[in-house]
Every structure is written in structure tokens, then in C-alpha cells.
Amino acid sequence: MSGGTSSVPTLVACGDHEALAGWPEAAVARGWIWTTAEGAEALPDRDAGSRLEAALVAADGAPRILIGAGPGGTRAFLHACRSRVVDAVVLVDAPLVLEDLSQGMPVQPLEMSLNLEAPALVLDREETDEREAIAARLDPFAKPWDADRCQGLPADLERVARFFADYLDLE
């Protein structure tokens, strides 16, 4: 893990606040540290990356978990593929295969996954074809990842805790 010496995870959130409603309170109740990189999902890529990296570096806890929802989850995934201080990334309804690319997003986010060093947990409210695409991209390179359906709180946070135990040696 790249974080400090504490075993208390710090979760840095980015994205759809509605999709993450109740998560901050539930995470803090578990003894985890929760912080938000406010507005990062709406910034240009470089500025968003700077804001996310600053929030991660400022985190006192270890490991440092980047959690993103919706388009903010896509942003979190892309940042996790570039950063060396992210210990894990949790994506909630975050598209990794986009229907339309743009000048601001000229490459599919999933194509950046070869640079991903942190384990990834993908939580979706609905079954999507993306899981097959993720498996096809990550499995051949033995990248640690898992996927599950969103069940709502507290089940989703329990799933995240199991993911931490499995991939980060946290109980």
C-alpha cells in the first residue's frame, strides 16, 4: 500500500452525490475517514486529476481509496490509472465504456486500465455488458478487480469492506 502507516482507510469521493447518499455517514460509522474532492468531476481532466491527487496525498489514513459514482467514477478510474498513491478504487455506476468519445475524452476509459495498479471494485445498479469488457481487459493481465450489483446501504458498504479485506488485508 502506498498510504501512510495507519490501517484506517481514507476514502476520497468524486462524483454523483445522490448515488453516494448515506455513504459518508456509514463509512465514518465504521471508523473510516471520508473526504470529498468537491467538483472534481466537472473539471477538465488535468484539473480534476490535480484535485483528486491533492485529496489523496493529504489523506492521513492508509490505504487511500478513490471512490467515484457516475461520471465522477469514470474520472476516479482514469485517475487511479495514472496515480501511484491510490491503493484501491471503488466505482459506483461509473461508465468505463462510453457510447460517444469527444475531444475531451478521445479514448475509452477502459483502455487506460493497463496502467491500473490498484485493485478495482465495480458496483452497478443494473446488469451491464461492461463487466464482460472489464474482464476481457483486466483478466489477461492479472489485474485485481471484482464486480457486484448495488444493493443499497448497508449492504454496499459491507461489500466494500469485504473487498478491502480481500485485496488490502483490512478487516
Helix/strand layout:
Elements: E1 10-15, H1 23-29, E2 33-36, H2 45-58, E3 64-69, H3 71-82, E4 88-92, E5 120-124, H4 130-138, E6 145-149, H5 155-168
Folded structure, characterized:
The protein has helices at residues 23-29, 45-58, 71-82, 130-138, 155-168, and strands at residues 10-15, 33-36, 64-69, 88-92, 120-124, 145-149. It has 171 residues and is an alpha/beta fold. Strands 2-1-3-4-5-6 form a six-stranded parallel beta sheet, sandwiched between helices. It is globular. The two termini are 15 Å apart.
Distance between the termini: 15 Å
- What's the overall geometry? globular
The arrangement of helices and strands along the chain is EHEHEHEEHEH
> How many beta-strand elements?
6
Q: pLDDT average, as an integer?
A: 87
Question: Pairing-aware structural class of the strands and helices?
Answer: alpha/beta
- Unreliable stretches, pLDDT < 50, 5 or more residues? none
Give, in spatial order, the strands making up the sheet with the most strands: 2-1-3-4-5-6
Q: What composes the largest sheet?
A: 6 strands, parallel
Bin the helical content.
25-40%
Number of contiguous helices: 5
Q: In percent, how much strand structure appears in the residues?
A: 15-25%
Radius of gyration: 15 Å
Supply the key terms.
33% helix; six-stranded parallel sheet; alpha/beta; 171 residues
Condensed summary:
The chain has 171 residues and is an alpha/beta fold. Helix content is 33%, strand content 18%.
